[in-house]
Amino acid sequence: MQLTTILLTALALVATPFATATAIGPAGYSSTTMVTNDFALSTTCGAKNPAVNLAIQAYCSSTSMGARAAGGLAIGSPFARAGMIHDGYKVSIVGPKCPANSKWVPAKYCAAQFHYMCAYGGAKGAAVTTFGNAGCQIWTIAPV
Length: 144
Hints:
By secondary structure, the protein is of the alpha+beta class. It has one domain. The protein is built from six helices and six strands. The strands form two sheets. Strands 2-3-6-5 form a four-stranded antiparallel sheet. A two-stranded antiparallel sheet has the order 1-4. Strand 2 (about 85) and strand 3 form a beta hairpin. Helix 3 packs across helix 4 (about 50-60) and helix 4 (about 50-60) runs antiparallel to helix 6 (about 105-120). Keywords: Signal.
């Protein structure tokens, strides 16, 4: 029975791989710690998949379509929802139910949190997790 449950769960995740965000990495790893350790996280991510690192850099530093101003990314903007694709990998943040105080991600947190996801995510850096007020922001690194 347990093997059947595991196989069905795995099958459900394959059928809808990015429908549910999952916890990744060490428990209690704060956003501040991610920023402090960003260089190491970025290096680990780059070793796994340079395309993801380049997509993160382009996405978190873009000034495209009014998405970034004053050093951050506006969650809910068309740019944030569309994400950034580089060499077959896409990074994006959506927050359809975020309160006003979770609709802004400073650039340093954008990069550090994506690097963390990539470093602790799948073999090629793919991951889905949540950040923001009560986890209302859904962050995705996915093959396209």
